[in-house]
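Batch manifest, entry 17 of 40.
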Amino acid sequence: MTRSAVLALVVLQACGSCSETAAPKSDAAPATSADAKPAPRAEAGPETSFDALPDAGPEGLQLRGKHLLQAITENDPSLAADLFVPREAIVAARDVPDPGGWYETKLEPSFASQIARVRRHEKGIDGAVFVSFDLGGPPVQVEPHKKEWKETVWTIRHSKLTFTVDGRVRRVDVAEMIAWRGSWYVVRLHEAR
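Output type: structure tokens
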């Protein structure tokens, strides 16, 4: 094959792969524009990230429950970051003057102290073996209330983290969880005293 023929073949192959690559992009463009239409309606209307009521027993909840137990056994709240309510959810829903600041100065430190308190009260928790994380129930839709929630949110009270220590079954009460973007998140581990 001559150099010109090789060059022509490379150009044809490149051109062919360009048209194959371009076709999916043009197919994706209408879907993207169609998907973009509902977004403004969700922001302007009643539909928000708090509307969806999660399934009662998603598989991921068990893994996240294991992370909560690990956070307690190691006294490290960051290990349960996937189960603790995200800052973005609090900023969107909490009715306080500075929800981001409230999250950082009140809610995160409170969760850390709850983790430490559970660790102190559960003797032998270093050897804990995860059994299950079970949602309490039933879910309740909480309407907006001044100094509480500025959005309607789904909550569940008294979920249970179950584990064993030396073969004995123990449970930690999860006082409150909220639903956000199709998943449940811990707000408080136990009732405030």
